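1st attempt posting a full record on here, be nice pls
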Amino acid sequence: MLNTITTYDVNKRFWKISEVDLNQIKRNELFDNVFIEKSRPDSDCEFQFCVLSILSIASEKFGFSWLNINDIISIIINVLGDSGWIPPEKELRHITLQYLNNNLKGAVLVENEERLSLFNVIKIKKDFLKVKKFREIFDKCLKHFTARYPYPSFKDDLINSLLKEIASLSRYKRKKANFVIRFHATKGFGEKRDDIYSTILDMIDQAKYSIKFMIAYYSEDLKALARLLGSKAYEGTQVQIILRWAEDSREENKNLIEEIFRTTNLKQGGWENFKYALYPIFKKPIENDYLLANLHAKMLIVDRNILLISSANVTIPSLRRNIEVALSTTHTDTVNEAIRFFDEIWDSLEINPRL
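the predicted structure (as tokens):
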């Protein structure tokens, strides 16, 4: 039974739960002239769950902030085309737009009936995926979505074998040890590995006290990250970010800072908990600045307890097309060493310089 989705809401509380139960679907006049009575409510559930699956895959798994409406319609037809109740494409488009505008008004915005803006990250409860019908629909949506926006795939037996070994090692936990080491990778290869972007979002979402984030490159399409950081600052978490400030990264990284402040402004609080530094804007002039190292590190430390080191930039090309890996750990000595490294650079830089 389709009954719950969870979304980010930057205007109220960060997490918002929208209830959609079977009775509500039955009473939905939107479908009165589309699905024959015999096929209801199954067809209602399948259609709505298919749309929600597409939005969830786009926003949560791929980090997209917008989608083309034609792509959504095409995926719906590919996934549900054999059901026997799908209306002609023109009518399906009309129904889909109505559904997006009426039922998901708080989470998405349809622009000129061509483009869909995703304001929030939409998450489908895992309970739904335990239901065979919903699991099949979600898997088909993921298959067709990935085909349309492909991640790299590899068939080389040696690479696949190597990845399995790494994945196996990542789940290794030392006996009587009080720390964990995990392996993470970008989508499209490996088995039972975490998606790096999802791991970053999960770590930040779980932060209670502090976030230290070092970023080389950011992509404006990943606004969910900026809004999540702004929301954590509003909740009282101390957020510190070091950004690479160079010709090839300045504009996008500036957008990240502005989006974080925009989120705190919407919530009307938390500004004082967010601070940023731009490398290499130092507190004091540096002699021989042409010898300065180039900032290319990607590092996240949450609550002084868990560390993520990643090869991936927080950009669509890096997270979608590249082969990227990361390691996270709660090993105390390693985390403390990373904190010292971060703080050493942080203390040398000007805090909250003018953009």
